[in-house]
Design goal:
With 73 residues, the protein is α+β, with helices and mostly antiparallel strands. It has one domain: Alpha-Beta Plaits. 29% of the residues lie in helices and 33% in strands. The chain has two helices and four strands; from the N terminus they run βαββαβ. A four-stranded antiparallel sheet has the order 2-3-1-4, covered by helices on one side.
Length: 73
C-alpha cells in the first residue's frame, strides 16, 4: 500500500460485498475493496486523498439500497 493511500472502513450487509466490489471497480481507479475476514460484514476500501470523497459518496448512495455504515475514515 502506498503512503498516500488510506483506508475507509465500513460495516455492510455481507451478502452485498461482491456487489460493492463490482460498483467500486466500475469507477476505475477510485478504490480497492478488501474483505475483513476476521470481522464478517466489514470491509475496507483503499483510497487516495483525491478519491476518498467520491468513494464516500458512492457508499452513501448504496446505503439507500442496503445496510452501509462508515466505521472510520
Amino acid at each position: 500500500m502506498k503512503k498516500d493511500t488510506k483506508k475507509l472502513r465500513y460495516k455492510v450487509d455481507k451478502t452485498e460485498i461482491n456487489f460493492i466490489d463490482m460498483i467500486i471497480k466500475a469507477y476505475e481507479g477510485i478504490g480497492i475493496v478488501n474483505v475483513d475476514h476476521d470481522n464478517p460484514g466489514q470491509i475496507w476500501i483503499d483510497v487516495t486523498e483525491g478519491t476518498a470523497k467520491e468513494v464516500k459518496e458512492v457508499m452513501e448512495d448504496l446505503s439507500e439500497q442496503f445496510y452501509v455504515e462508515l466505521i472510520n475514515s
